[in-house]
Every structure is written in structure tokens, then in C-alpha cells.
Amino acid sequence: MPEPEPSPRWWPRWPNPRVRRLAVAGVLLLGWVAVAVPVGALTFDRSSRTTVLAGHEAQIRPTFDGWATVDLGPVLPSLRYPSGSRIGADIALGRTSLGSYEELVDRYAFLASQPESQIAKVRGALVEMALAAALTGALAGLAVPATWVLVGPRRRRELARSRRALTAIGVTGALAVTGLTAVATRPWDDEADRLTDTRWRPVAEALPDVPIPAQARDLQVDAGLLTQGTERLVASALDSYRKSSAFYAEAAAAAESLPLREPSEDETVGVLVSDRHDNIGMDPVARAVADAAGATFLMSAGDDTSTGSSWEAFSLESLDEAFADFEHRYFVAGNHDHGAYVPEQAERLGFTRLDGEVVEGPDGIRLLGLDDPRSSGLGNWRDETGLSFGDVAERLADIACESSERVTTLLVHDRNLGGPALERGCVDLVVAGHLHEVQGPLRVEGEGGEVGWTYTTGTTGGAAYAVALGSKPRREATISLVTYRDGRPVGIQWVRLTPLGELEAGPWTELKR
């Protein structure tokens, strides 16, 4: 058997083959890291995501400056806020539905008072880009061990004995690593040169005559775009932000002292919201009421938006953030949630969209529901069109009456969709919204003496017509609580927030059968 060829002089003579293999593995690992890290960093630095943010089409790019910078366009000054880490984000806001700049600035202020869902969206986009970049870098780094394997042991020995080949490989590798690292870090790209027209100043310094909320004191503004007109807009936004934050925070805190009925151990409570119409300020209030009442699941009866447009994505995102830890969250679209965007977004966020089939809810509660047929065109029933509103209601009643087990809750936007099911004695309770005021609970005796109830909750957003966005509700904002025992509804209680900031609870009404 021929003896192995001697190792080159620069390679240590390892008496133990296992130690030699470990040394080789260590060198390959270092090679993998030398390629994977700069490639991953470069990929991350050059990444971007397009999404809907703060009512705009927006492009998010990662940065390494530790700031979340928002570009508001050529008229309004850019803003930035410390991200709390080395990673930041450049956020360029694009087109949106716009009535006036005053309306737009008020929207910014309102969203800033409840920013959790939008922050989570940006953070999620950055994490997604970081994971994609890490995967790209990891795959690129595999070129080092792959080359080692492809060259093979014989060719490696030949190269190892050639000083010229070793020198060329070393120089090429060093230049490649240096080049990748330089491109990733871009030491020549001085921020001062890129932002020659940007003069960042703390907002308190830029607007010395404007009271600055404590939460906004770390905010910086591009003073280069501040004019007398934009100063007034920013001052108005800060005032709206301060009022909105204080109003809804006080309402949420007041929920703890409400005289709410406490459920017994064998009872389950669901929180019912409807007609939010983009008023995300009410979401932490609804959650506080739910916690105070011991509620464990959510029902949304629709009209979460005003037009169903993609720029209103923040509305359902806020509801999702407020009730993120609720395992059971049920949703139907209202007549103002026009088109497919809102129902599809609800499903993407993890809500259970009721779509004409009976579903098993928590603790034996059986639910049935359907989007308002007017949301995507009057008379749509899945793939069938041309049905009247009454025809769709009859279809729902057929499903309820043909169910092998009794339907305990029919969730719809308009209670008239549940009328035939109640009259035929096939459901215990129909819950709805649409009317923007509380009606019921009303007792209905159906066929065969079966008793059911219908209940319409008020507008949770405090909406006047289809508009609720603002620093406080435009009318009384309502959250309702439905109590179940052994899977069947036994009582309802409403909670109401007035435009004056008074939070009050109505009586708990028993649903007798």
C-alpha cells in the first residue's frame, strides 16, 4: 500500500487524524463565516419591503443608525425617533387617501397615540428581512466548504505544494472578503454627505413655544422643512396626540372600577365589538373592559373600516394587537368593509372568519356567521350571485336549522340577516351591529315554542355615520359582553364611553329561555 504524500511545510503534522479533521473543520468554518457575515450584512442593508403603514403605501428599509426615520414627503418635515437598538429603519410614506394636509396630520397624531400595531408591523418587516438576509449569507458561505469538497484531496495536495498557487488563493480570498465587507459597511458613504439638506433637531428645540408630551421628547424633526405653515401643522398634531393619548388611557384605566358582573366558574364571557370605523383608540379600552369582565374570546360584527380600502389596514392590525393573546377571535365583514381586502386581511391576521358554516367555539359555544352581502355586492353567496338580502338570510336559517347541534350564536353585521333563523327557532342568540346604537336584547319566540334573542350593539368606534377617526369618539362608543353557560348565552351587559370621557356600564340582562 503506497504511503500518503507528505503534508506541505506550512501545515502542522497532526499525529492524531481526529485532531487533523477538527482543524480542517475549524478552517472551513472560519471560511464560511468570512463569506456569510459580509454577504448577509450586505443583503440586509440593501433589503426593502413594501407594505401599508399609517394609511400609506410605504417602503421600509433597514439601517444601522439606531433611528426609525419617517419620510413624510416633500411638504411635511421628516421625523425620526430612537429605535432602542443599533438597527433602525427608513420609512418612506407613499400615496394615501387624502382630503387635506390638516386631516392627514390629525391621522398621524391619532395613530401615534396607539402605535403598537404599526411598530409591530415595522419590526416584523425588519425581522423578515434579517432572516432572509441571514439565509442568503449562510448559503453564500457554503461556497467555501463546497469548493473544498469539489477540489478534492489530490488537487488540494498539489495546490498546497505550490507556493505561487497558495499566494494567489490567499490574495484572492483576502480581496474578496475585504471587498464584501467594504460594500456591506460602506465606510465611504458618510451620513453627513447623504443628508446635507437634513437638519435634525429635537422637536422641543425646533418648536420652543409648543408644549411637548413626555412620550415625544426624544422625537427629532427635520428643521430644514419647517415653515410657519408646517410648524402650525406639527403643533396641531402634537396637541391632537396629547389629547387622544390622555383620553383613551384614562378610559382604559377606568374599566377596572366598572360594576361589571363577574362570571362564575362554569361561565364564559365573550366581548362583542362592531362599527369601529378605524377608531383604534377604542381598542385598548375594549381590551381593558374585556379583562375587567373576565372575557376570553372576541366577536367582531363588522364595519371595522369606513371604506374597506387597503390604506385602512391599520384598523384591523390594531384590533389584532389588542387581542393578540385571545385564542378565539371571530369576524364578519360589514357593509362598509367593501370588497375582499378586509375579510382577507382578517384571515391573514389569524381571525376566524365566519363564512356560512357552523364552527365549534370555546366551551361548547357553536357559532354561525356570514359577511354582510352588501360588502362585496348585494346578493353574493360564495360563488352565487343575484340573491336578495332576504334570500341570503334564508340561506343562513337553512344552515342553522339543518345543523346536527343547535347553533348558540349567529354573528352578523345586520340583525335582519338573522331574523329567519330566529323565527324558525333554530338559534339561541343573534348578535349584530350596523345601527350604531344598542337595541335589545329582545326575546323572540320561534316555531315550536323555541325561544331566541336578538341583540344589536352600538358603535364601538363612536362613529357618526361611517367616520370615527379622531382624538375622541364622536358619539357614545359601545362594547358589549355576552355571558355563556354550558355553551349557551345567558346574559348580556354593555359598556359605554361618552365623548366627555365618562365610562359607564349598563345592567346585566339575563337571557331566559
Q: Could you explain how this protein is built, in words?
A:
The protein has 513 residues and is of the alpha/beta class. Among the domains are: 17-42 and 142-185, no CATH class; 260-510, Metallo-dependent phosphatases (Purple Acid Phosphatase, chain A, domain 2, 4-Layer Sandwich). Helices cover 38% and strands 21% of the residues. The chain has 13 helices and 21 strands. It has helices spanning 17-45, 101-113, 116-141, 143-160, 163-185, 191-194, 203-206, 228-254, 282-293, 313-322, 341-348, 389-402, 419-423; strands at residues 49-53, 56-63, 67-71, 79-82, 88-96, 200-202, 220-222, 267-273, 295-300, 328-331, 352-353, 359-360, 366-369, 407-411, 427-432, 439-445, 451-456, 477-485, 488-497, 503-505, 509-510. Strands 8, 9, 10, 11, 18, 19, 20 and 21 form an 8-stranded mixed sheet that branches. Strands 1-2-5-3-4-7-6 form a 7-stranded mixed sheet. Helix 9 (282-293) links the parallel strand 8 and strand 9 (295-300). It is globular, with a radius of gyration of 31 Å. The termini are far apart. The model is unreliable at 190-196 (pLDDT under 50).
